[in-house]
């Protein structure tokens, strides 16, 4: 587990560099192609992992691209809600993620049974997000959607840490497990940021 956490921390640092690149280097016209590439890489990582383990190079390239594509979201909330809201969202995400991770690591309970429930929940979130493209949700609906997102990705942190504790991690699976934690953290951050952004707009 320590090797996974170190790799995860490095992935976050690389994503931050990617976000800075998105702010100062990457032209706006590249964001959509990079989002498509990010999606394709994510699908390949999880659908073809049985044939070939995810490599460290793949992980770091993915998190760098993910950091770039995260920039437009962060920039939107910086302009509409302010740096304080973005900073609070990141701090809150760090506290929630760390607290749940410590609990899962210390708990004697095995939370791997949550896998099926979480998969169903994330499929529902994807379906709602697609619906939102064509029929935008109200601010109240988006707030409820974001709270559900916090619960789901908090559950994934619990699930992933518990699975590593109880079943261990093979050396070749370290990058994939770090990728799981990275996705948990980023999606938790986006959900919390959205909540704080909506609440700040109501003040």
Automatic annotation (TrEMBL):
> Which range is the signal sequence, renumbered to this chain?
none
* CDD domains in the cross-refs: BI-1-like_bacterial
The name this protein goes by in its record: BAX inhibitor (BI)-1/YccA family protein
Localisation per UniProt entry: Membrane
Pfam families in the record, alphabetically?
Bax1-I
Q: How does it sit in the membrane?
A: Multi-pass membrane protein
- Provide the alphabetized UniProt keywords: Membrane, Transmembrane, Transmembrane helix
Transmembrane ranges?
31-48, 57-79, 85-104, 111-134, 140-159, 179-199
Query: Which segments does the entry list as coiled coil?
Result: none
Task: Report the domain of life of the source organism.
Answer: Bacteria
Q: According to its UniProt record, which protein family does this protein belong to?
A: Belongs to the BI1 family.
**What Gene Ontology cellular component terms go with this record?**
plasma membrane
């Amino acid at each position: 587990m320590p090797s996974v956490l170190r790799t995860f921390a490095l992935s976050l640092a690389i994503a931050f560099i990617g976000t800075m690149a998105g702010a100062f280097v990457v032209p706006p016209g590249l964001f959509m192609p990079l989002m498509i590439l990010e999606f394709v890489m994510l699908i390949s990582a999880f659908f073809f992992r049985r044939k070939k383990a995810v490599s460290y190079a793949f992980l770091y390239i993915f998190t760098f691209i993910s950091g770039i594509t995260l920039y437009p979201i962060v920039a939107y909330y910086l302009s509409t809600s302010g740096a304080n809201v973005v900073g609070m969202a990141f701090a809150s995400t760090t506290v929630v993620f760390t607290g749940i991770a410590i609990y899962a690591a210390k708990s004697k309970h095995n939370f791997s049974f949550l896998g099926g429930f979480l998969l169903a929940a994330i499929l529902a979130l994807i379906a709602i997000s697609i619906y939102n493209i064509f029929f935008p949700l109200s601010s109240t609906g988006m707030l409820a959607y974001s709270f559900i997102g916090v619960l789901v990705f908090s559950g994934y942190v619990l699930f992933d840490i518990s699975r590593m504790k109880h079943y261990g991690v093979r050396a070749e699976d370290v990058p994939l497990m770090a990728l799981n934690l990275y996705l948990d953290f980023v999606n938790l951050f986006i959900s919390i940021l959205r909540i704080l952004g909506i609440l700040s707009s109501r003040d």
